[in-house]
Amino acid sequence: MDNLTIYNAVRQPPKEALRDIQAGRMKGKTDINPMWRLKVLTEHFGMCGIGWKYVITKQWLETGGKDEQAAFVNIDLFIKVNGEWSDAIPGTGGSSFVAAESRGLYTSDECFKMALTDAISVSCKALGVAADVYWNSDRSKYDKPIQEPSNQQKTQTTKTNQVNDKPINWAGFWGSCKTIGFTQEEVHTIAGVDSIKDWSRDKATELLNKLKQMKQEGK
What we know:
Layout: H1 5-10, E1 18-20, E2 30-32, H2 34-45, E3 52-63, E4 69-81, E5 84-85, E6 89-101, E7 104-107, H3 111-125, H4 131-134, H5 151-164, H6 170-180, H7 184-191, H8 201-216
Antiparallel strand pairs: 1-2, 3-4, 4-5, 4-6, 6-7
Helix pairs in contact: 6-8
């Protein structure tokens, strides 16, 4: 097997697995659907536990400023190639446990799950999974050149971002979800992501309207 066989096969995610981050510290970057990574591992190495697996080696909490806390997970990822297990491919992931929001401290009961998802993504990165998202400069002569947006497109993008930059009242959002009858875990499942904390106001409103419609339809 050529050294880049797997790398080149998994370097570019499909468009439906990508989402532009519109707000927050990660604004301008791209979010990758975590299920796509698991699908990639399964396609190329086999079912989880048979062709690939991971072992959690450490879980812990760290205290930050303003009484905030973050959860971290260390894993070792293993893949099977030609019937033999690889050496450990390490990965470290993190997620907020206690976050300071406008209405006070918010505690997440999914922090270790999201940190685990993050750790898997770090291990997968070493295999080249979604490499093109992380390294846009790694392009070949066969790639289409990136076109610079026109002044009109830049102006429209700026106006859109100004609207999306308005802070979201997440406490109110989750309160509305609870009133409708959905838990945070159910909301994240419906949204198809592990976290919506970086979503724009418009996207969060769209999701809330979808939840209301689902409740009305008895789903």
